Request: fold
Amino acid sequence: MIWPITNNFKTMNNKNLLERSLNAVWHPCTQMKQHETFPLVPIVRGKGVWLYDIEGRGYLDAISSWWVNLFGHTNAHINAAICDQLEKIEHVMLAGFTHEPVVSLSERLKQIAPGNLGHCFYASDGASAIEIALKMSFHYWLLNGQPQKNNFISLQNDYHGETLGALSVTDVAIFKKTYAPLLRPCTHMPTPDWRYAQNNDSAEEHALNAATALEDYLSKNHSETAALIIEPLVQGAMGMGMYHPIYLKRAREICDQYQVHLIADEIAVGFGRTGTMFACNQADIAPDFLCLSKGLSGGYLPLSVVMTPDDIFQAFYQDKTAHAFLHSHTHTGNALACRAALATLELFEQNQALESNKSKAEYLNKIAKPLATHPKVKNFRNCGMIWAFEVETNDADFPEKCFATGLTQKLLLRPLGNTIYFMPPYVINEQEMDLLVNGTLHVLNTLTANNR
Reply:
C-alpha cells in the first residue's frame, strides 16, 4: 500500500498535467504503476531553496534536486550569464572547433583542482564521465604495453552510475542485479564507511583496516588491475556512508606503489559538498582521474568533465589517429553549460561560499540535536553540507511515506531506504534550516509514533 498524497493535489489543472506526464513521460528510478495512488508533484517554478507547485505551494528542496543545485533555483547571476551566452553561441561541436566558455572553464578548473590535473575531457552527465575515466585508464595501459591491466576495482557500496561500464563498478544490488549478464566483473574492496567498524574501532582505525585489505589485494592482483575507483569521503546512493580521509591518503600511496590508477568520482561530492572544494583536498591528494558533474553547472545544465594530468594526456598524444582517445558526446563542452559553470565558480568567490558553509553547518548541527538524539535515529552524521541518519523501522513503504509526509511540512525529502539525508543548496538561511529540522522531526515522530 503506497501512502497517498492529500486529495487537494488533485485539482483540475494538476490532474491534466499529471495525466499528460503519466501518458508521455517514463520517469527515472520509478515504478510507474505506483503513481496510480502516489501522484507526481507538478513543479512550475523555483526560487532559492524553494520549489513551487501549480497551486503555489512551496517545498524546501532539501536534496538540491538530486544533489545538483548549489546556489539556488533561478539564481540571478547564473541566469544572466546564460542569457548573455545565448546571444553569442549556444553550441558548436568540440571536434575541430573550440570556444571561449570551454577554454575559460578548463583553465579555471585547472587552477582549483588538486595536483596537476591540467587536461579536461567533457561529457554531459556523471555516468558518462565514469565511462570516460574507465576507458582512458584501460587505453593508457594498452598504449604503454600492458594490455593485461584491464580490470577495475571499487569499494563495497560504491555507486558510479547506471550505464554498463559505470554499473560494472557499482555495488548497489537494486540497480545492478538485473543487468548482471551485461556487465564486466569487478572486485569490491571493503568499505571504509565507519558504520561498518567492528570491535569498537574508531573511524580512522576502520579506514586503515580497509586500506590494509586494499593493499593485500593489489599486492597479488596489481598486474591485471587498471584502476581503483572510489567515491571520496561520502558514498552517496547507499545511504550517505561517510569515512575518514586517511583512507584516501593510503589509497593514493597504495595505488602509486602498485602502479594502479586512482579514479576519484567526485560527481556528487565535488564543489564544496564535503566542506572543501573537493573531497580529495581533505587528504591532500590528487587522483589520476577526477570525475565531476552535478554541481559543476550549478544544477542548471547537463555537464560533466574528467580531469587528468599531463603524463596520461601525453600517452595519447601521438601521430597515429588510432592512438588518440576516440570517444565523443554530441554536446561535449556545450557553450551554455560551460558558461553556467563559470558563473557558478564565480559565485564561490563572490559569496565566500566555503567559509559561509562552515557557519551554516555549525548552525544546523546545533539545532539538529533533537534529531540526533531521537530514540529512533541511529548514526547521525555530517560531512560539510551533507547530513544523514538512519531511522529504525520495519516499514517497507518508509521512503514513500517520508516523502509524502515531508510535503505536508513544506519539505522535499527523498530517503535512501531508511536513511534520511539533507543536501540543501548553499543559499539556505537559518530560518529555512529551522524549518528543515523541525519539519523532519515532525515527519519522524509521525512515522514512528506506533512503533516506539
Summary: The longest strand covers residues 377-383. Residues 68 and 294 are 4 Å apart (CA to CA).
